[in-house]
Amino acid sequence: MTQQEEIQKLVDKVKEFEKNEKTDLSSGEDLSVAIMNLISIEEHLFFTGSKTGNKEYLDILLQIRDMRKELLKKYPDISKFRSDFKLTDAMFEDLIAFGEKKGVPRDSAGLAVSSELIKVQLTALLARDLWNTDAYWQVINDINPFYIKAMESLKNDTFERMKIAEK
After folding, report:
1. String of b and e for 103-120 (b: at least 16 CB within 10 Å)?
2. What pTM was computed for the model?
């Protein structure tokens, strides 16, 4: 089956689903997973492409799926991803250039302050997209000062010294 036929099959399924109008997000799937899936970029591209008839949205969708497959081959689990993945300056610059092409002006002062935080946030979002919300937190907590302090407190017996440790 060609990619175009696969896309058409998916479009037909969506149209059939719309006709039935019977939805129960709690059956067979966790509601939080359903919500995450509904707001993901893939669904947005698919539905926008279907609604507008613009094939470019579906082409981008297929590119994203191919990228995801490649990333999952290279990083089969969150541990490998956390240890080996790096959102490079070149990748970040490509994203900024993309935004500029779409009319979002570069904020050099803001980027000077926030670029490292944005890179970690993007990496965490990528981890969530590849795996789940737990993967997101595994990445983002590396810069979360509250999490870092809590882990330090657990490791250095702070709670025992304060006599508030649970026994």
Report:
1. eeeeeeeeeeeeeeebbb
2. 0.65
